[in-house]
Automatic annotation (TrEMBL):
Keywords assigned by UniProt, alphabetized: Membrane, Transmembrane, Transmembrane helix
One Pfam family matching this protein: MFS_1
Protein name per the record: Putative MFS family arabinose efflux permease
Lineage: superkingdom: Bacteria
Ranges where the record places region Disordered: 1-25
Compositionally biased spans, kind Low complexity: 1-22
Gene Ontology molecular-function annotations: transmembrane transporter activity
Transmembrane residue ranges: 48-66, 73-93, 105-124, 201-220, 241-264, 270-293, 300-318, 324-349, 361-384, 390-409
Coiled-coil intervals, chain numbering: none
């Protein structure tokens, strides 16, 4: 009997599903999905361009004002005024964005902010009275929450894809870290290489151009909402306690920056402080991207905060060695806890804020961070002068521990109440924790 030829032998066909996928590609599939969405690359490019100046303006203003007026105290007071004005105006501006749309509000507001920066430049250049510097820089508070605008677009586009939205939030946090790492470097280069006003001028141009490109992408813009009947995000269950956590986390950032600069200055190496702080941002950026590539689990904020509280003790220990290199390595490792904490907390804010007030909710987060940064900077400066630069590293460690305690307190209250009144709780979170991080009906996933 003749043998069958190979042409008669069926050959199994390899389908796309059977094709082996490299682990690295599988791991970062969420990011590929993000930028495969129509219009995502364009609005991300515009948003990053507009976000970069956020790390430039403060440094540029300090260099410009201190160089012209010979007073770092005046420069610090002017930038602090802008910070306070931003914290107040941010939620109000975000509410307008939710109601009328990003393009109608964000672009004109950005134009006002850019004009404020240019007015500051002219006041410094023309030797105008000091009060005009405060008035001009206060106008920059009209800058929208640029990162929040981008996160709102991702939340709109990926409302049915929580896994991909997790990757989007991680990417946005990494982008924040990158911009605040590169922004001061670019500002220092421009002000040192060209003229003191160059950083402010270039920052204003980048801000306006980036926002114009971002708002031009109308297909990905969330639809405007009518006047919301939902309560303020401040009254949403769990959001107030989250904002307290953000404030404590901001205190970690603000105090760490001041204390690190003071520590480097005490050793005669102040010029290296910027590079050392950039390592902390680099560690956070890398950890955020890796965290976003992982399959998202149920948000466990207290775990992230526990990791941050533990790792923030490393710079304190490293500072006692007297080596700036050892401190730099400790900051790199400590920074790795920052982005996962921020991503998890931001995800919880998005879940617990009404859809038609999402920009307002995320702007409140920025307000909490700014308040925390201001308080942390002041406390870190006080500890540096009254104690020592080494002992002052206890301030960011204490702020991180405080954030952890805030996240654990509602859960502890819930357990006490549930044990004391098992029939009254009916499977819901205790009313004692109604304004806490943990407030919502218990689900099967919670019980697991």
């Amino acid at each position: 009997m003749p043998q069958q030829t190979t042409q008669d032998t069926p050959v199994p066909q390899q389908t796309a599903q059977d094709t082996p996928t490299r682990p690295g590609r599988r791991r970062f599939a969420g990011y590929r999905r993000l930028f495969g969405l129509p219009g995502a690359r364009a609005f991300t490019a515009g948003n990053l361009l507009a976000r970069l100046p956020m790390g430039m303006f403060s440094v540029s203003a300090v260099v410009m004002i201190a160089g012209a007026r010979g007073s770092y105290a005046l420069a610090g007071a002017v930038t602090a005024t802008g910070l306070a004005a931003t914290a107040v105006a941010g939620p109000w501006l975000a509410r307008l964005v939710d109601r009328h749309g990003q393009a109608r509000i964000a672009l004109p507001a950005t134009a006002v902010s850019a004009l404020g920066s240019l007015a500051l430049l002219l006041c410094v250049r023309r030797d105008a009275p000091d009060w005009t510097l405060f008035a001009a820089y206060a106008c920059t508070a009209a800058t929208p929450n640029i990162g929040g605008l981008s996160r709102a677009r991702w939340a709109h586009l990926l409302r049915d894809e929580p896994g991909t939205l997790h990757a989007a939030n991680a990417f946005e946090q990494a982008a924040d870290e990158l911009c605040f790492m590169l922004g001061p470097v670019l500002a220092s280069f421009l002000t040192g290489t060209f003229f003191p006003e160059a950083g402010t001028l270039v920052g204003a141009v980048l801000l306006l151009a980036g926002m114009a490109l971002f708002t031009a992408q109308r297909a990905t813009e969330p639809p405007p909402r009518a006047r919301s009947k939902a309560p303020s995000p401040l009254r949403s269950p769990g959001v107030p306690a989250l904002l307290v956590c953000f404030t404590a986390t901001g205190a970690v950032f603000g105090s760490m920056e001041v204390v690190t600069i003071a520590y480097a200055d005490a050793g005669g190496r102040r010029a290296a402080a910027g590079a050392v702080l950039a390592l902390q941002a680099a560690g956070s950026c890398a950890a955020g991207l890796v965290y976003g590539a992982r399959k998202p689990a149920a948000p466990r904020l207290h775990r992230c905060l526990a990791a941050m509280a533990a790792l923030m003790t490393l710079p304190w220990a490293a500072a006692s060695t007297g080596s700036l290199g050892v401190l730099a390595g400790a900051l790199l490792v400590a920074g790795m806890a920052t982005a996962p904490t921020m991503v998890t907390a931001m995800t919880l804010v998005q879940r617990r804020t009404p859809d038609d007030r999402l920009n307002e909710g995320m702007s409140l987060v920025v307000t909490g961070l700014l308040i925390g940064i201001a308080c942390g900077s002041a406390t870190g400066g006080w500890a540096t002068e009254r104690l020592s630069p080494v002992a002052a590293f206890g301030v960011p460690a204490t702020a991180a521990a405080l954030a952890l305690l805030v996240s654990l307190a509602p859960e502890a209250a819930r357990r006490v109440t549930v044990r004391g009144f098992p029939q009254a709780t009916g499977g819901h979170r205790s009313t004692c924790a109604r304004d806490s991080i943990s407030v919502r009906p218990l689900t099967d996933g919670d019980r697991k």
